[in-house]
Structures are given as structure tokens and as C-alpha cells.
TrEMBL record:
It comes from Streptomyces vietnamensis. This is D-inositol 3-phosphate glycosyltransferase. Residues 248-402 form the Glycosyltransferase subfamily 4-like N-terminal domain. CDD domains: GT4_PimA-like (cd03801). It comes from the Bacteria. InterPro entries: Glyco_trans_4-like_N (IPR028098), P-loop_NTPase (IPR027417). Pfam families: Glyco_trans_1_4, Glyco_transf_4. Gene3D superfamilies: Glycogen Phosphorylase B, P-loop containing nucleotide triphosphate hydrolases. Transmembrane segments: none annotated. PANTHER family: GLYCOSYLTRANSFERASE. The keyword Lipid metabolism does not apply. Keywords: Glycosyltransferase, Transferase.
């Protein structure tokens, strides 16, 4: 199912519509469906004021005010009248969005129905604006989201055999509008409101169940031209592997996983960019959302806000979402009926709390409970996620690395200490690294290699300038110019330093280990996978101890050789083939397994057997 079925009860009798909604909610609930009812008969101005300001014209008949007629070219309505109609449409859209999210959360991929006592047909009739107006377009856009509109005809004074337009009086004009608009909208089902309420409710129930059966049959049929097509998997990640300012480890992981999934599935990668558009590369379709111009912080927030809408537009069988800071989760399981796998990059929200004093972690904790399948990079994050979301299937899938033949002759060699990664001064701990290097004064140069956003690069440039006032300073900053340059730096380095305050896994450390290089780092829980693998761990954020171990590694070639040998052996256990294979197996398990049949929550026959 694409989502909950939206049903509107329309007609001029608001009280009768509300009572029918209550009856339908009871009948549908007895058949095991999740039902959400919404009372939205008129906007909040209409509910508080008898007549919206300046909407009624002098001499217009009708109790409580009569909207201007669209048939009168001289009286198309003032700007306030049009604004009132747009306000009515906006409130209806907001209420529907909230009701659909609530229905999804309650149904948990079961059958759900949202029933409203007011629909876009009522808004079009009451507004009385031309079909070309913006308010009419808004109501028609909302109407396309509805699956069914029940038009209850309850006018006992209509003479048989005569058209409504031929009879004088305000009710005639009102019903003429209902008749006119109902011919132009889809999904209209007319009900005889003169029958007893129980019979009206029974007929309405049958129409709703028929519509749900049709939706099920349509969902089971393949799309035109889709015979033999492979299942579609969508991956979303903010970082773009082709953007040098955000070429982080997560972008490379998603690129590797997408290539492996493309062996058995159709794959689409949704990412951010300065310009929107799509492109096909290596059998993978890339969709870029134009949020990059907003900057790194606002761009991430826009990316998170757009993802639910993109998930509604792209038809998919499985969605793999790489969580994007600062809120990480985007609540995608509430907006799609397909399985969603959350790829957790690390507990960055707690770090952001300590840095900005904003409670991003509260949103993450609530959002994680919506996910039933979560992938983490390390065991420490896996334990934390299981505590926050006990019902989730949490899998630990570490990052991989290209396998290389270990050159024993180069073990222990190197000309400088290397920091390699994205430039993020606070998160990557570059200020701590420079302070430790200044205190210890090791005999090897310190080389910072990486790029970042313009603001972060300016911050690092000022920091480096403050630490290089001495003419004999041996701190250098270079920007990476591609994979070849990075490989050369790793080969020529003596050892790597990872002074991060927060890490999800440490892909750069694993790459250095594959070259037989020791790794000096703070003893963070997320980096403990390196224990006894040629690493040197220091008490978190102890600058003096970090500097002392830096000097020890820089002066002891034999120590670097022993640790480098361990690093090279340990890196051979982290292969891209094994890591991407786990994602491929997870995708097959979720896509190929039949969905479990949801049991009715109340006693009684299933709605599928009531006919």
C-alpha cells in the first residue's frame, strides 16, 4: 500500500457528516482496520466567527453568510476572500498530513483509513472562486490525495425530474455547485442521504472496502513495462562522493554498497548537491537535491526535510537511509510502506549537545524507535542503539578497505606524521593535535592533509598560523588532490594520528593500517575495534599524553615496525567484499521475504471477507 486510504464525507449537512464519520470509524475498527478520524469542517476562522471578515456581500441570501458566486464576473472575491480560501486549504492539508502520519504509526504497515468530515469538494463549493484561482488549484491538489469522497445528498425538497439549477433559492445554488464540482473531481461516490442512517453507513462502508480492495489489486499488479524488472533499492546520504568539501567516509561506503547492490537490484542514490538533477553512472541512478547552496548546516536540515517527500515520489521496494546529522533520523518509516534500513554513522548528536548545547539527541532518540532495521559501524554504537530501540534489528557491519600486499621492507619507515581526513577543527580534534605537537616537539614534521567547507578551512588556517610563528615550525597543511595523492601520503608517512573528539568508525585509520602504519588515537569507544591491531590508544583528550606517545613513535623505528606489522595483518580482516555482501544479504532478506499478514486488533471477521 502507498499509504492510508483518505476518505472524505462531503455535503452541506455538517452535523450529518460528523455522525456518519463516527459510524464509519466504529464499523471499520470492528473489521481490524486502523482508523483515524479528523474533524476539519471549515477553517479555524469559520469556527470562531459566524462570517469571515468581508466575505458576505450585502443582499446575499443564506444563513451565516453566503460566499460570492464564481459565475458573476464582477464579483470574483476580494483578496481577503481568496486568502480565506487558501487558509482553509492550508489547514486541511496540515490536518491530513498529521492524520496520515498518525495512521501509519498506529497501523505499523497494516491497513489504515483516515476519515474526515470535510473534504476538498466542500472547500471548492464554499469558496465560490473560479476554477483558475490559486485556492481552487490548492483544493484540487488536495483532492488528488484522497482515495474516495462520499457525497451525501440530503435535500428532500428537490422536485423529481428537474435540474437543481432551475429551482430558486440558496440551497439550489449550493447543490448546483456540488453537482458541478463533483463532475470535475475523481473518486466521488454519491449516497442517498434520505435513507436511514444505518443504511447510509452500510453503503458507505461497502464503498470504502471496495476502494481498499481495488488498491490492493493495483498494488499487486506490475507497472506497465515493468515485467521482468529487478526490485528497486534507494540509498540516501547527504555527503556526495564527488564533492570535495564533504567527501567523508560515509559517502565512500554508500558508493561501495550501491555498486554491490546493483548486481541484483536497480539502485538509486539520493544525495545533496548545489544543483538538482539526475544522472546515470555505472548502472546506478543518482538524484541530487539542490540544497548545497544553503550551506553545510542549513543544507543538512533541508535535506532531512525533503527526504520524506522524495520517498513519496520515488517508487521503491527498500530504502537504505544513511543518517544525517544533526537530527540523524528523518522519520522515513512513517512516510513509506516499504522496509527502511537506517545506517547509523555514530552518536554524533551527543557531541553536538556538548558543542552547541542544543538537544539534537532528543529527536534522535524518538526517531530511532520508528526504525525496525538499523546498521551500525561498531559494537559500542550497537549496544547504545539497542537500549534506545529495543525492538529494532541492529546489525554491526564495519567498514571495508582495499586489500594490499604488505611491504615488509617499508615497515617502520616514513618521513612525517600524518593527519588525513575532512577538515573539521572541533570534531576532528585538530586543535588538540596542534597543542600536543607544540608541547612535545617530536623529531618528525606534522602534515595535515584534507579539505572542508570554506569556514572550516579558514578556522584551520588561523589555527595553523598561530602555531607556526616560529620560523622553525614543522607543521604543514596540504589539500588532498585525489586518490593518487592520498595513497602517496599514506605510503610515505611514519604513522597516522586520529585526535578526533568523535568518530563513527575511523575509515582513514583502517586505510593507514592497510599500508602497515601504526595509528595513534584517543581511546574512544567507537575506535576500540583497533585494539591489539597496531594502534596506540591514549586517555581521551589528554593532550600531554598524546604528545608524549607521538614523540615515542617518532623516535622508535623498531616500535613502529612491530606495530605496523600488526596493523597490516588486522586490516586484512576488513574487506569491502565481505562488508558489502552483508548489505546485499540484508536487502535480499527484506525484499524477498513475504510481508507478514496483520491480524485484526478487535474481534470480528476480517474486512477482506465482508461482502
Amino acid at each position: 500500500m502507498a499509504g492510508p486510504l483518505l476518505v472524505a464525507v462531503s455535503g452541506p449537512d455538517g452535523a450529518g457528516g460528523s455522525s456518519l464519520v463516527r459510524r464509519l470509524a466504529t464499523l471499520l475498527g470492528e473489521r481490524g482496520l486502523t482508523v483515524v478520524t479528523v474533524r476539519c469542517h471549515g477553517c479555524f476562522l469559520c469556527r470562531r466567527l459566524p462570517v469571515p471578515p468581508r466575505v458576505r456581500d450585502a443582499g446575499e441570501p443564506g444563513r451565516g453568510g453566503w460566499a460570492r458566486r464564481a459565475t458573476d464576473p464582477e464579483r470574483r472575491g476580494s483578496w481577503l476572500h481568496r486568502a480565506h480560501a487558501l487558509l482553509d486549504a492550508a489547514e486541511l492539508a496540515v490536518r491530513l498530513t498529521a492524520a496520515r502520519l498518525l495512521a501509519r504509526a498506529r497501523a505499523r504497515r497494516g491497513q489504515a483509513v483516515v476519515v474526515t468530515d470535510h473534504g476538498p469538494l466542500d472547500g471548492l463549493v464554499r469558496s465560490g472562486l473560479p476554477d483558475s484561482s490559486g485556492a481552487a488549484s490548492a483544493f484540487r491538489w488536495i483532492d488528488r490525495r484522497y482515495g474516495l469522497t462520499l457525497l451525501v445528498e440530503t435535500w428532500p425538497d428537490t422536485p423529481r425530474g428537474r435540474g437543481l439549477e432551475e429551482i430558486a433559492g440558496p440551497p439550489t445554488v449550493l447543490w448546483a455547485r456540488y453537482r458541478g464540482w463533483s463532475r470535475r473531481l475523481s473518486g466521488i461516490a454519491r449516497l442517498d442521504g434520505e435513507r436511514p442512517p444505518s443504511l447510509v453507513a452500510g453503503v458507505a462502508l461497502e464503498r470504502i472496502l471496495d476502494e481498499m480492495r481495488e488498491r490492493e489489486r493495483a498494488a499487486a499488479l506490475p507497472e506497465p513495462g515493468a515485467a521482468g524488472e529487478r526490485r528497486h533499492v534507494v540509498m540516501s546520504v547527504y555527503d556526495d562522493a564527488d564533492d570535495p568539501t564533504c567527501r567523508g567516509g560515509e559517502a565512500r561506503v554508500v558508493a561501495k554498497v550501491a555498486r554491490r547492490l546493483a548486481e541484483d537490484f536497480r539502485v538509486t542514490v539520493v544525495t545533496a548537491g548545489r544543483h538538482g538533477g539526475t544522472e546515470e553512472r555505472d548502472g546506478i541512478r543518482y538524484v541530487r537535491l539542490p540544497v548545497g547552496r544553503a550551506g553545510p548546516r542549513a543544507g543538512r536540515l533541508l535535506f532531512l526535510a525533503l527526504l520524506p517527500f522524495v520517498a513519496r515520489r520515488i517508487r521503491h521496494d527498500l530504502w537504505m537511509e544513511s543518517f544525517t546529522p544533526p537530527f540523524s533520523t528523518s522519520l522515513l518509516p512513517l512516510t513509506t510502506g516499504a522496509p527502511v534500513v537506517g545506517i547509523h554513522q555514530g552518536r554524533g548528536t551527543e557531541t553536538l549537545w556538548r558543542r552547541y548545547h542544543l538537544p539534537f539527541f532528543l529527536v534522535e532518540r524518538l526517531g530511532l524507535r520508528c526504525y525496525r532495521h538499523i546498521v551500525v559501524r561498531n559494537a559500542a554504537d550497537g549496544s547504545a542503539i539497542r537500549r534506545l530501540s529495543p525492538r529494532a534489528d541492529v546489525q554491526v557491519v564495519p567498514t571495508g578497505v582495499e586489500q594490499r600486499q604488505l611491504d615488509e621492507a617499508r615497515l617502520g619507515a616514513g618521513r612525517f606524521i600524518l593527519f588525513l581526513g575532512r577538515i573539521d577543527t572541533w570534531n576532528k580534534g585538530l586543535d588538540l593535535l596542534l597543542d600536543a605537537y607544540d608541547r612535545a616537539r617530536p623529531p618528525l614534521d606534522l602534515l595535515l592533509a584534507g579539505s572542508g567547507t570554506p569556514a572550516e578551512e579558514r578556522r584551520l588556517a588561523a589555527l595553523v598560523a598561530a602555531h607556526t610563528r616560529d620560523p622553525e615550525s614543522r607543521i604543514h597543511w596540504v589539500r588532498c588532490a585525489g586518490e593518487d595523492r592520498k595513497r602517496q601520503l599514506l605510503r610515505d608517512s611514519a604513522f597516522l594520528v586520529v585526535p578526533s573528539r568523535h568518530e563513527a568508525f575511523g575509515l582513514v585509520a583502517l586505510e593507514g593500517m592497510s599500508y602497515g602504519k601504526p595509528v595513534l588515537h584517543f581511546d574512544l569507544p567507537a575506535l576500540r575495534w583497533m585494539r591489539d591491531g597496531g594502534d596506540v590508544a591514549v586517555k581521551p583528550f589528554d593532550v600531554a599524553a598524546f604528545g608524549a606517545r607521538m614523540t615515542e613513535l617518532a623516535t622508535d623505528t623498531a616500535l613502529r615496525r612491530r606495530l605496523g606489522h600488526r596493523s597490516g595483518i588486522a586490516a586484512q580482516h576488513y574487506t569491502w567484499d565481505e562488508m558489502t555482501g552483508r548489505y546485499l544479504a540484508l536487502a535480499h532478506r527484506l525484499v524477498d521475504s513475504p510481508a507478514a499478514v496483520r491480524r485484526p486488533r478487535k474481534r470480528g471477521a476480517s474486512w477482506q471477507t465482508t461482502r
